[in-house]
Amino acid sequence: MRIFLSSIQSSIQISIQSSTRLFFLLAATLVGAFGAGADSGSLPPSITTAPLSVDQVVNNLILNDVERAQALRHYESTRVYHLSYRGFPGDRDAEMTVEATYDSPSTKSFKVVSQTGSKLITDRVFKRLLDSEKEAAAPEMHARTLLNRDNYDFALIGFESPGVNSSDQGCQYVLAVYPKVRSKYVYRGKVWVDGTDFAVTRIDAEPAQNPSFWTKKSEIRHEYMKVQDFWFPRRNESVSYIRLGGRATLTIDYDNYRVGASRLSGNATKPSSSDVGAR
């Protein structure tokens, strides 16, 4: 059971911290890394048929991320964590609802509203994740996980017009991202960038370095949504395959964002509520 918990904790933490936006980065603090490091292969060639080049897209992404981070003062939201484990030594499920609060520049607090299912998972996995997220808000850790040229190499591998894949979003630039260092704090995969706001709207990836010897493979998928002038997580999902034959699936659904006054010009001075993430 200790192996089961350690493997799930490590895999989930790298999954969540790879979200890369300003407020949901976690440090993988529980298990040492024994897997392969970052892929040392060369990036695929960038396409030349998109309206902007890869350098222009990345420059706009970094610039707009900095502006949004500086503008965001306060938000509150509701999260629902759900973990389902199937395999040795036995199936387990747990769910926890949390009210999250962020205050600029790096303060986070969490209030557990309800929890059901395996007490082992809620106490040893979910609550440890919340503690790690608060620690990861520190500037030095945040800098190690940012999606920028210090941490990643980029290639532009696609451009999607509105309506592709039944999406209601505008045009999307698709980037291949490769980490520059061997680290369990970063990931490799594909990132979709909104062509107007230059914010990340989706990530499909895997940890650059296996978070635990006991984790055979981890798959990460993140989706984001726009609330006022900011982009927040809508849903995170990670699937970890355990060497002993089990599979752990973590989902985090984000809802009911309440964004306080920001530093962006023209923004309302009173907090407002958005339920665009409701299901």
Q: In a nutshell, what does this entry contain?
A:
It is built from 4 helices and 11 strands; from the N terminus they run H-H-E-E-E-H-H-E-E-E-E-E-E-E-E. With 279 residues, it is of the alpha+beta class.
Summarize the structure in words.
The protein contains four helices and eleven strands; from the N terminus they run ααβββααββββββββ. It is an alpha+beta fold and 279 residues long. Strands 1, 2, 3, 4, 5, 6, 7, 8, 9, 10 and 11 form an eleven-stranded antiparallel β-sheet that branches.
Keywords:
279 residues, alpha+beta, eleven-stranded antiparallel sheet, 4 helices, 11 strands, globular
List the SSEs and their pairings.
Blueprint (H helix, E strand, L loop, with lengths): L1 H16 L36 H18 L2 E13 L5 E12 L3 E11 L1 H18 L2 H7 L6 E9 L11 E8 L7 E8 L5 E8 L7 E13 L2 E13 L4 E13 L12 E3 L5
Antiparallel strand pairs: 1-2, 1-10, 2-3, 4-5, 5-6, 6-7, 7-8, 8-9, 9-10, 10-11
Helix pairs in contact: 1-3
| Biggest pleated-sheet summary | 11 strands, antiparallel
User: How many strand elements?
Assistant: 11
Distance between the termini: 34 Å
Q: Which percent range fits the helix content?
A: 10-25%
Number of DSSP helical runs: 4
Order of helices and strands: HHEEEHHEEEEEEEE
Structural class: alpha+beta
Q: How confident overall, as mean pLDDT?
A: 80
Strand content: 35-45%
Poorly predicted sequence stretches spanning 5 or more consecutive residues: 10-40, 265-273, 275-279
C-alpha Rg (nearest Å): 18 Å
Global outline: globular
